[in-house]
Design goal:
Layout lengths: L1 H6 L5 E11 L2 E10 L4 E2 L6 E2 L2 E4 L3 E8 L2 E7 L2 E5 L4 E4 L13 H11 L6 H7 L4 H11 L13 E11 L2 E9 L4 E6 L4 H8 L10 E4 L3 H10 L4 E4 L1 H23 L4 H7 L1 H8 L10 E6 L2 E6 H9 L3 H19 L2 H18 L2 H12 L1 H5 L10 H16 L6 H13 L15
Parallel strand pairs: 2-7, 10-13, 13-14
Antiparallel strand pairs: 1-2, 3-4, 5-8, 6-7, 8-9, 10-11, 11-12, 15-16
Helix pairs in contact: 2-4, 3-4, 5-6, 7-8, 7-11, 7-13, 11-12, 12-13
């Protein structure tokens, strides 16, 4: 019995019986307990008394699992009488809050499970032998004081969106602190008017120095309207991806020109070959072997030889690849003071190339040039953290097969991403199972 008391953290209670029952075709453990306290302090006069007046009807509480079995605690409460003031009172038990049939320990276990983004609400409910609505209530109560708006913003913030299919649109909006790796808030839409209205609640808008995002014009307009002292920074990932996509468009156009049955079509279509063209060449070990299907069987071929074979298919493809590499080289080694001149030079080379896809890409870079240059002020100015969070958010949605209630989705996601919200203790992370 003493071992079980330690396992279930019931050392202040005396275990009277351990029974087995059946609930929903599952064996459950039923543990009858009572307090070890022989004396109680009278809430009226403060005197201690050991006189038991009677015992109350046993209370059932859902508790932590015992040896992988769902467990119920049956508490036999005692009612004491103080003969000094004739007050009758029930002993205090700290296993649950008043009116709840779920123990505090089980609530802590549920809150710990809710931190795991790989677990759905339904799974957490089944694992802890409670219903889904109880899980939702536990989370809502735990973070009931979570604010509806961000009041104080950090020096650097980032904007991004993710697909959410909310009632207000197809995309939800996320605000992050990329320097301190913290999600600030998740909003149900990304429309300019809504964002401007939202940011009016922020007390320190004028102290924001940098806003990091992609090349989505409404975000730039929001920055100009709401953060007049801030600089808009285009995230490096987005504008480098734009150049890679331009190269890909050249490849796809040439692929179609050669025709479905040609050797060139098959080489340009191969996903492994496409990866070699899209990646920055300094990140690839060219003099290592890779396998390809050739003349009816698999052969080993150097990555370098394979790249040269691809680029020799067409001069236009080779020129587009060189321009892509030149852009990557420029971006990798640029300093803030030289960034504008170097990028203008690359834009000029692209225009002279007469490759339609690269010309179009260079015009986009030119249009956003002042904000792209700002990305070289500090290497930490990136949406990398935000993109990582978006992937985690996608997992949260996928595991749950979507969320109908955006407000609850926001609370669950913020709880997962930030871990500790509105006074939620770290002990939930360390609760014994």
């Amino acid at each position: 019995m003493k071992n079980i008391e330690k396992i279930l953290d019931l050392e202040n209670y005396k275990i009277l019986k351990i029974l087995e029952g059946n609930e929903k075709n599952k064996i459950i453990k039923i543990i009858e307990i009572e307090t070890k306290n022989k004396k109680q302090k009278c809430p009226l006069c403060g005197e201690c008394t050991s006189s038991i007046h009677d015992r109350l009807k046993p209370i059932e509480l859902k508790y932590l699992k015992l040896f992988e079995h769902d467990t119920k605690i049956v508490i036999k409460k005692k009612r004491f009488i103080c003969y000094k003031c004739n007050k009758k009172f029930t002993e205090v038990v700290d296993l649950n809050n008043k009116g709840k049939s779920i123990s505090n320990k089980l609530e802590q276990k549920v809150l710990k499970d809710l931190l795991n983004y790989n677990l759905s609400i339904k799974y957490i409910a089944q694992e802890n032998n409670i219903n889904s609505e109880s899980v939702r209530k536990i989370l809502k109560n735990a973070i009931s004081n979570y604010p509806k708006h961000v009041i104080n913003l950090p020096r650097v913030i980032s904007f991004d969106e993710f697909k959410a299919d909310t009632k207000k649109g197809k995309y939800a909006f996320v605000i992050n602190d990329p320097i301190h790796k913290k999600c600030l808030d998740i909003l149900p839409e990304r429309k300019k008017e809504y964002l401007i209205q939202y940011f009016t609640y922020c007390n320190n808008r004028h102290s924001v120095e940098y806003v990091i995002s992609d090349m989505y014009e409404p975000y730039l307009l929001v920055q100009k309207a709401m953060f007049p002292h801030a600089k808009y920074v285009v995230d490096r990932f987005h504008y480098t991806r734009y150049i890679m996509e331009a190269l890909d468009k050249v490849r796809i156009r040439l692929q179609k020109e050669y025709g479905y049955n040609s050797k060139e079509y098959r080489m340009l279509k191969n996903k492994k070959n496409v990866t070699l063209l899209r990646k920055y060449s300094n990140d690839i070990e060219w003099f290592t072997y890779t396998k390809r299907y050739k003349n009816g069987h698999m052969v080993d071929i150097l990555k370098y030889e394979l790249r040269e074979e691809l680029l020799n298919i067409n001069k236009e493809l080779k020129q587009a690849y060189i321009l892509k590499e030149l852009f990557f080289d420029t971006v990798k080694h640029l300093e803030y003071l030289d960034a504008e001149d170097e990028l203008k030079e690359w834009i000029s080379v692209c225009k002279d190339s007469k490759i339609e896809e690269l010309e179009e890409a260079s015009k986009t870079i030119e249009n956003w040039l002042p904000y792209i240059v700002n990305s070289f002020i500090d290497e930490r100015f990136s949406n990398g953290y935000t993109e990582g969070l978006n992937n985690k958010i996608k997992v949260i949605k996928r595991i749950a097969f979507g969320y109908k209630n955006f407000d609850f989705f926001r609370l669950r996601t913020m709880y997962i991403l930030n871990g500790k919200i509105s006074g939620i203790s770290k002990k939930y992370r360390n609760t014994k199972k």
